[in-house]
Amino acid sequence: MRTRLAEVPLLVVLLGFSGALALVPAAHAVAVNETRIARGFLYSALILILVAVMLGIATSSRPRSGSTRSHLAALVGAYAILPLAMALPMLETVRDTRLANAWFEMVSAFTLTGATAYPAERLAPSIHLWRALVGWFGGFVTLLAATAILAPMNLGGAEVATGRVPGRGTAAAALIGRAEDPTDRLIRSALRILPIYAGLTLLLWVGLLILGEQGITALIHAMGTLSTSGISGPTPLSRAGAALPGEMLIFAFFLFAVTRRAWPVLLPGRPRSALVADPELRLASLILVVLTALLFLRHFFIAEAAGLAGDLFDGLASLWGILFTAASFLTTTGYVSTHWLTAGAWSGVGTSGMVLMGLAIFGGGTATAAGGVKLLRVYALLRHGERELERVIHPSSIGQGGAERRRLAGEGAQIAWVFFMLFGISIAATVAALSLLGTDFESALVLAIASLTNTGPLADLGTAQPIAFGALSDPVKAVSCLAMVVGRLEMLALLVLILPSGRRS
Amino acid sequence: MKVIICGAGQVGWQIARHLAGERNDVTLVDMNPDLVRRATETLDVQGVVGFASHPDVLEKAGARDADMLIAATHSDEVNMVTCQVAQSAFNITRKIARIRAQNYLAAEYGDLMNHDRLAIDVVISPEREVAEAALQRLAAPATFDTESFMGGRAQLLGIQLTEDCPVLNAPLRQLNELFSTLRAIVVGIRRDGRLFAPDPGDQLYAEDQIYVFTHIQDVNRALEIFGKKTKKQERVVIVGGGNVGLAVARALEARTDRVRAKIIEKDRTTAERAADGLERTIVLNGDGMDMDLLMEAAVDRADAILAVTDDDKTNLLVSVRAKQAGCQMTIALVNDPTLAPLMAPLDIDAYINPRATTVSSILRHIRHGRVRAVYSIGDAEAEMIEAQVLSTSPLAGRLVRDIEFPEGVLVGAVLKGDRVLKPTGDLRVEAGDVIALFAMANDVPEVERLLQVSIDFF
User: Fold this and answer.
1) Which fold has domain B130-225?
2) Class of domain B2-124
3) What is the ipTM of this complex?
4) How far apart are CA A280 and CA A385, in angstroms?
5) Contact A139/A160 with Cβ under 8 angstroms?
6) Disulfide-capable partner of B375 in A374, A387, B384, B400 (CB 3.0 to 4.6 Å)?
């Protein structure tokens, strides 16, 4: 089975798996007696599997290219094609919908953005489950790609740590690469990641069930948290029933989107340093603590001035609301705490969504399912800044903290800076494209950042008026879908894939 | 006593010279026949040509009936194996090895050198000794000579008196009454180039050089009483980030009073290693002779500069340059002993000779018996001897005032248990105490008789 799978192109395998996944909502629909929906999912699943098998047979005789670069190409292809395939069950089951909406929905779920074109009550629970499943599958693909495709090519955050040119491995890695087949590595990584990813999701699901969420809602929230898609089922997190303890549990699981070191197995062969010393975790904690304190104090002083500060419970609840929501947007998940609005209600002024946009741009940890610029790059830039200040005083001094940190603050920061600029340019380009298509500036900005950082719920909180994705015109949807894919794959990886072949001749 | 010395480099050579001069039976082992021949021609030693750790070579050197082996070859590993062979094949009781690499000496592997492991009784680390010497120099900037005794609990200070010393023209007896809590005693005075042990009635004059033996906690107070400002060493610049510089910087970082040290190191890799080994110290990468870099290290405002690169000339020139820029004190590491006379004309405050430091620390360990430390004062005019009082000694059980010390001998301090006591007339010296004696060179044999060391010397 394993050798057979290895002979089939990655894209076809992924297509087959997404078909097989559609059997899950089919089973759910059968269980809740939604025959029409069950039939829709079952037929789509069979069609997709059949197509995948036929494609597999047709392509298996092809000589295997098997390079990491071809895997990268397959990954890009997956983001282009799979959402179309995944839209098939949506078209079959959702009444009165168009391909554009279904496709948008699937791109948004698969890129872990979690923006939705449909009002929650329009979709049946099984269809919500399908969205969450696609997001969950997208999270798995992201983790797998980061470990087995991007890291060996010195991409996806690895370039900041190594400080070398992105897109190439070391000479040593090239030697090993010849000895070890990238496809083998891909399969091995997949088999190592899947049990832990699934296990953690199960753990969170059970935890949420115990704390009082309903079956399918809890599963959707568990999937949404682990994959950072932030997809909510029929009921949003704030009304799902688990209340504060549930939020605390989810908060704990945000850890897996903050640092890759929290994952038990994603780092083969690297010495496991203490999690507490992880720069990404430290930076995330610092950002969260400072930001929460600032926002809370702002509310506190306004409430104090108005003579409303007496209510201790409201104060604590709003503190938690700010902390949870900030963490949720920092990891680009996008769940909103029940108590997010408590702070506003308490002091009478709302909290600006701008702050959340900033957090989403910071993003989570490298090689996790989170999006954004990634904490490691921000950390490298911070260290670089600190180092430059040191050099103003002592121009010939040597940076402290070991060779790794010096590299991070030197060459690593340079590449991080390149990425940061690319990210900035992407934002500018997306905003420009959206504005050209007639969106007003504020919405365009929020849409661009929500798409590029893969944080769909920003559209609800970023501006004063929530942006309804369903009401957007098709070209706008297309642009924001493109931005989502660019944000997910990271511009650097796309450039590495596109540039050399065209430019070298 | 029969001693085998492995390695006829500068250190081995110096030790051989000292030990042969003390009428020991010394055998020198080295791979280089020329060195061995030169040694046997100039010194009263025997020579064996061969690889030090080979058992047959050691046997030829007389390992069967040797009392001590000193392994001072260039290689740490050869030194270790030599000691191991000496232990296992020939059962030599005392083995001293020079070990350079700090990794072998790390505290967590402290028992590595144990008798039943690598079988080394005493490890001499040149870098560590030099770093210690440098630190001692830094600690007492106002002194011209300093040495620690009694395991670091007491210190001998050499102080140059000037007009602003507040206790000039007062008899020493009166000083004793004035500062009754000060645990310090003047053990020697050099006046007009002549060193003598003072009587209680002697007075101090400007331009005198005095030697004071003091409790380590009273060093600063003693310096103040003799008119030396104990300015804290706050900014120290170290040129050279090798083992010595790193060890000094580490020791400075470990001190509780915040000393701000900066290291200048030319080699990028060495500089990075130094930066990684330190926390607060700023490491600058560049040539120590570069004035811009020296100014970047704020050498003009520095309290001391320590030039410890491996090049003598660089060390001397950097020191001169720093002094010119306004640095208060300069200390240079000088390997070539013939450069020593240059220190005064170059206005370098102190110099450290690593080989001399290593030799003296090896010698100190050789004299381990009952005499625990000997420090030669001035041009071998007098010695400071630290020794344990034996029960057979005529000192044991008697009051200090009742002991008939020769005229040129003074008691510096008495160590009972781990307390350092100032000698007073009614202090009773008991067997097992450690006594520190200042003795004029002529009186040393009499002191040895008093200590009864000649019987139990080894």
Assistant:
1) Alpha-Beta Plaits (3.30.70)
2) alpha beta
3) 0.71
4) 17
5) no
6) B384
